[in-house]
Amino acid sequence: MTISMYQASVPSLIRSIDNLVAILEKGAADAEARKIDPAVLLNSRLYPDMLPLVKQVQIVSDVARRGAARLAGLEAPAMADNETTFAELIDRLKKTNAYFATLTPAQIDGSETKAIALPMGKETMNFEGLPYLVSFILPNVYFHVTTAYNILRHSGVKLGKLDFLGKP
């Protein structure tokens, strides 16, 4: 059995983002229940040199959306990094998943050896499609979803492993 580039990317990205939406919904509900200003959670970080929750979520959206677009040979829709509420972050993630719904297997399948140039500041990282997916896109999405989860968990939001993994 083989797995296509589309099967290895889009469904996994959608699932991770859906799970992050559920995690953020729990964070928002927890802030309300404990009468905590949501901005406290949204601006929390695990360590002073790490990015806050808001930025973790924005990066998930950016890496996933732009990564899938590059594999498909498309320009990803732009999103401003201006979210300041749980509702706005959730909306951003839902828009990211709505973008994935516009992608077809035919656009992404066969991109295993496609040349991908990834601008990183003044440098450019060069990949082929499959290594780009498995060594850049997916690990980055999982890292930032995990970090967002950990920020909220560290802040007292009742989350467990199944919140990260989602329902089978």
Quick synopsis:
This protein is mainly α. 62% of the residues lie in helices and 7% in strands.
List keywords for this structure.
two-stranded antiparallel ribbon; 62% helix; Four Helix Bundle (Hemerythrin (Met), subunit A); 2 strands
Could you explain how this protein is built, in words?
The two termini are 21 Å apart. The chain is globular, with a radius of gyration of 16 Å. The mean pLDDT is 97. Strand 1 (115-120) and strand 2 (123-128) form a beta hairpin. A two-stranded antiparallel sheet has the order 1-2. The chain has one domain (5-102, 114-158): dinb family like domain (Four Helix Bundle (Hemerythrin (Met), subunit A), Up-down Bundle), CATH 1.20.120.450. Helix content is 62%, strand content 7%. The protein has helices at 5-33, 38-42, 53-72, 86-100, 105-108, 129-154, 161-165, and strands spanning 115-120, 123-128. By secondary structure, it is mostly helical. Helix 1 (5-33) runs parallel beside helix 6 and helix 3 (53-72) runs parallel beside helix 4. It contains seven helices and two strands; from the N terminus they run H-H-H-H-H-E-E-H-H.
